[in-house]
Amino acid sequence: MNDYARIEKAMAYMVANAADQPCLDAVAAQVHLSAYHFQRIFCRYAGISPKRFLQALTLERGKQLIASAESLDTTAHSLGLSGSSRLYDHFVQLEAVTPGEFKRQGEGVDITYGVHPTPFSEVLVAMTPRGICRMAFVAAGHQASLLEQLGKQWPRSTLNHRPEATRYVVDALFLKTAKTQPETTPHILPLHVSGTNFQIAVWRALLTIPDGHLASYSQIAQALGMPKASRAVGNAVGANPVALWIPCHRVIQQSGALGGYRWGIETKQQVQAWEAAQHSPLLAGCS
Which residues form the HTH araC/xylS-type domain (predicted)? Predict the structure, then answer.
């Protein structure tokens, strides 16, 4: 079992047993390590301690919803269908597939892909020359089926297995030192996605939700100026083609319930707790 797999198994155990608040020894035993070695591995790859992760699991999501509302409201005026809106953190840049590109179905486009471990299971990352076009948890479906889906979306493209070219996409999320990105990470992380105008608008709205915060489907609809479109927003969120970087995991129900997630509710809860612990001043760190 590799270190990422150990973290994934430990997180799943803590999610399932959060109400019992399992001690460090109990969690370490699940991955057959001493408490000392497990603590070091978890901190190294997750950036937080097991204790902080467990604490984040018990936070009230409703409070995070309230904190997110103002952020969404202040960016509502810049959201639209033109593709010209500025993004919240200026690091992720989303570009939609043009009508011409869609018509050509990827003709002449080389798509590079690779599969990489994360604390939440392996992910498949695929990139066109213009940016990331797909990022999906392999645990939600076999790699072959994910590649088949990619081929159907870009039927005339050429797929090239080059994990060394896509690794930085995952490293930028999980190998942070002193909150800086790895040297191999570009200044801008480009996304190159295909969707309807409404879907693109929703995905842009998701990028305005700050790290460690949450928003409801109705808040997204309000920010887009379509207060009655919560259900349509939910469908667009569920169609997100780029896991983690387009943060559909930050959207929950107005009641505070988790809502759905195309890669599984357990994974959604793990990612939310990981982000909350990373960005909360009360929870951050490896103590």
Answer: 8-105
